[in-house]
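Q: Got one fold?
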Amino acid sequence: MFWTESVLFLPILLEGLRLTVIVTIGSMLLSTVLGLVWALMRVSGIKWLALFATGLVNLIRGIPIIVQLFYIYFVLPELGITLSAVQAAIIGLGIAYSAYQSENFRAGIEAIDHGQIEAAQSLGMGWLMMMRRVILPQAVKIVLPPYGNTMIMMLKDSSQASTITVAELALKGQMLASSTFKYSTVFTLVALLYLVMSVPLILLVGWLERRAKK
């Protein structure tokens, strides 16, 4: 019975999985770029810039993701900015997770030995060149494991996009279960599909952690 129903339900759920992947990848890219910007502002040595970035990160972290999604999708149109549900989901999750990415990047940058900074400065490197050639390449190795964990969290939190009508995997499963009343089959398949996406990432994070220790 389960396998017969799975054959019927899987193609529908895979449509939702496609949107889950799109939202996850899009928001991960946006959160990475914004998180790096916030982190660089915080370690820039410019007091007002660091204070601004710190305040912004704390503001983002203090507002629930679902509220940020609602604001972007429902409030911005009143200000003349209309986005599709998928675009709003990517921007909302990207901004929300940029705060956590910022902490990852900042921790990685600050973990670099200060002597290397002094050495770079003694060679006449400016701040941007020092970051690009000396600090960031080393910080990446430190940041990769927590970055991978953040990616896993974002994959699971992509289900919150269903609150603004994105028909991703969780919402597809809910709609399918409600129409067929096959709750056990549908949500078992949903859980398995999330595992199929999550397990490779979990293994990757473990491998990165072992590489970082070496």
Remarks:
- The radius of gyration is 21 Å.
- The chain has a mean pLDDT of 89.
